[in-house]
Design goal:
Length: about 375
């Protein structure tokens, strides 16, 4: 198939976690012999911020570890949408300009024979529904939602059986256990401070427990305002600014454990949707501890693949246990890695995508017959 994917950016993961999964899926599709093209706007916000902070060297890790991937840029929505012509499958990510989303739909309406899917990996359907309802999706065949609770929102909006749950997953070509054992020490947390969606939770489940359990804490991420960096200093955490996602596996392998702190919107309004860091960390064979979230889709075996705690006191106790118990660490690593390899790789998601395409095509084939 000729597959076209419209993304905010494939090159930059600066405050752009969606790039992680998209890179892995496109790599898997290419490995299976599909012709894959990715398009992004010329002045993508993530790219501009990455270049501002790190210059062209900010792309080095991506270019080195994803040599098979490349993206093309466009200046106007209509120009970008024209690349959909002649494709077999077109996927448009929700972090695109609404004008681009509509323009691709117009290409489809003018006779495009491709399957057209909208890929939603954000909480705006519940946090800013008016923004998402403004997207013109009339010509789209279906929606790929990265969790069942998000899919249910689209079902209520009338999509019925044309919305498909399509979780994120680990790119195990890059995210895997280290080839050689290394000395491990302390905690690492890779994530963005953002807009205060989890500021209190980070203090309760990460900063305070790390200090109380006497574990050094390294933090990587962007959008940390002055008050955030001051809080990190207050708790003795070491802040290292942005980390290219392609470099994350090497950082994971040097640490004893990592922590998952879900954003409030996912915890309260879209349960069952973990950040992709959960998949990536488990794939890298690093023990994971988590603040509470509802794994209502049973993606993992809580208590076996990772430890979940209810409050900061329990997190401190769990960190202390983990620190002094190599067998506990080994059991978590083995179980978590097994679950990823059996259920949550980009190869699994590509198989799901191919099945979704067949489901979308089936009614058209029946009517043609």
């Amino acid at each position: 198939m000729r597959i076209v994917y419209f993304t905010h950016s494939l090159r930059s993961c600066w405050n752009h976690g969606n790039a992680h999964f998209v890179r892995g899926v496109l790599s898997e599709l290419i490995a299976r012999g599909h012709l894959v093209e990715a398009y992004e706007p010329e002045r993508a916000w993530s790219v501009e911020n990455l270049v501002k902070d790190h210059g062209e060297r900010g792309f080095d890790a991506y270019r080195e570890l994803y040599p098979e991937l490349r993206s093309r840029t466009y200046s106007r929505p209509e120009e970008g949408a024209a690349h959909a012509s002649g494709a077999d499958l077109v996927i448009v990510h929700e972090w695109n300009d609404p004008e681009l989303v509509a323009a691709v739909g117009r290409v489809r309406k003018r006779g495009g024979r491709f399957v057209l899917l909208f890929h939603d990996t954000h909480h705006r359907a519940v946090s800013a529904p008016q923004e998402m309802r403004a997207y013109d999706l009339d010509a789209y065949d279906g929606v790929l939602a990265f969790g069942a609770t998000l899919a249910s929102v689209y079902e209520r909006w009338g999509w019925g059986n044309r919305v498909f749950t399509w979780h994120e997953a680990a790119d195990v070509r890059r995210f895997h256990p280290p080839e050689h054992k290394r000395d491990r020490d302390g905690l690492v947390w890779i994530g963005n401070w953002g807009d205060g969606e989890r500021s209190e939770e980070l203090a309760e489940f990460l900063l305070q427990p790390a200090r109380d359990s006497a574990l050094p804490l390294d933090i990587y991420g962007v959008r940390y305002p002055a008050e955030a960096t001051a809080k990190l200093q207050q708790f003795g955490a070491r802040y290292h600014v942005w980390l290219a996602n392609a470099a994350a596996p090497d950082v994971f392998t040097g640490h004893l454990a990592t922590v998952h702190v879900p954003r409030r919107f996912y915890n309260e309004m879209l349960p069952g949707i973990p950040t992709i860091r959960v998949f990536e960390a488990l794939a890298c064979a690093i023990p994971l501890l988590s603040a509470p979230w509802d794994d209502c889709e049973h993606l993992f075996r809580v208590g076996e693949d990772f430890l979940m705690v209810r409050n900061g006191v329990e997190m401190t106790r769990a960190l202390s246990d983990l620190k002094g118990d190599p067998a506990l660490r080994e059991n978590l690593v083995r179980s978590g890695l097994q679950t990823i390899r059996e259920r949550h790789t980009c190869a699994h998601r590509v198989e799901e995508l191919l099945n979704i395409i067949e489901q979308v095509r089936a009614p058209a084939l029946e009517s043609a017959a």
